[in-house]
Amino acid sequence: xxxxxxxxxxxxxxxxxxxxxxFVFTTLKFILAxxxxxxxGLKNIIKALDNRVQTMNNDLVQIDAKxxxxxxxxxxxxxxxxxxxxxxxxxxxxxLRDEANEVINKFIANVExxxxxxxxxxxxxxxxxxxGASTGTAELEGATIFWERDVDLGTIAIRITEIDxxxxxxxxxxxxxxx
Length: 179
Prior knowledge:
Blueprint lengths: L1 H9 L1 H89 L2 H26 L6 E6 L2 E8 L4 E7 L5 E7 L6
Antiparallel strand pairs: 1-2, 2-3, 3-4
Helix pairs in contact: 1-2
């Protein structure tokens, strides 16, 4: 009956407008209440996801720090092993150099050099002698040196055969080179 008293006092169009306004207000209130509840639920879900992201980010930072630490240790170990290897190689070279610079080793090298020089002089004297043999062979540390003089061509052919079978041949003209 209250509606009828309002209609009697203000008229039907105004009372209908008030009723329609109350209907729209109640409907919006209901819709907004459900939307607000949904938004609050989504807000809580977003907060939970944000916490998970922060936790994962912290875990990734920790993993990155541990991996960086392990890689740094590996690099240090590798560098240290390379330094030790280089030091050992340097010490071995120094030892070889020191051994070669000892007086006895210098003496032995000098004697060997003079012996080889004397042998090569004798071999060359025999090759170029006009009264000596026209061929010759010498063995030296497993290598065979064979030479042969060809009077018709005016050359001397020298053939050196190494222990592994490698052959080197040199042909030298006899007489004046005529530069």
